[in-house]
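It is worth pausing here to work through a concrete case rather than discussing structure prediction in the abstract. The textbook approach is simple: state the sequence, then state the predicted structure, then interpret. We follow exactly that order.
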Amino acid sequence: MTRHLIDISQTLHPALPVWPGDTAFSAERTWALSEDCPVNVSRLTLSTHTGAHADAPLHYDAGGADMAAVGLLPYLGPAQVIDVTACGVRRITPADLAGRLFPDTVRLILRTFARFPHDRWPEAFATPSPELIDLLAGQGGLLIGVDAPSLDPETSKELPAHHAVAHRGLAILEGLVLDDVAEGRYELIALPLKLAGADASPVRAVLRTLDGGQEDVG
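Step two, the predicted structure:
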């Protein structure tokens, strides 16, 4: 049976909403194809947290590893997608996933938006609780991913979910687009760039259906 790829990345373009105060995306042609030049070459300006991206520990820990030093294993392998849009704008707790989280899930991806806000910045969004991160870590978790722009609310200064991840040694994906993704098991492919000194990296994130299609939750 054919295994299908589902692109869960944002398209990067100049109007892409970014975290308030962060760097907007832009692309500038530096060399242009012509009689005197055989190629097109462009210069990109963007935040390390542009679109779908992976956070490095350096993002929330002054002594944490940069993006070039993180292991790749968390970003490639079996994953479970769970729809938590019914939770509204609040912290997502283990109770919200009761009976839905497979006990062998090590990569958890949470869908929090009914429709991804491509043309606006969401000032409020659902985020995973530290207790949920502890639950995932307790069953051997490697990664937690969200469609929201952050694991913590925009106004948070303490970043409890990020620090729970740091304590437990998990990886983070943020800004995923899950509108066309049904709940179930998939293969995640979302490798970050090997950026020395960087606190995050954009990723081209995709889910691949498993043999026989995804396994539905519940």
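Step three, interpretation. Residues 5-9+49-208 form a domain with the Glucose Oxidase; domain 1 fold (CATH 3.50.30.50). The helical segments are 130-138, 160-168.
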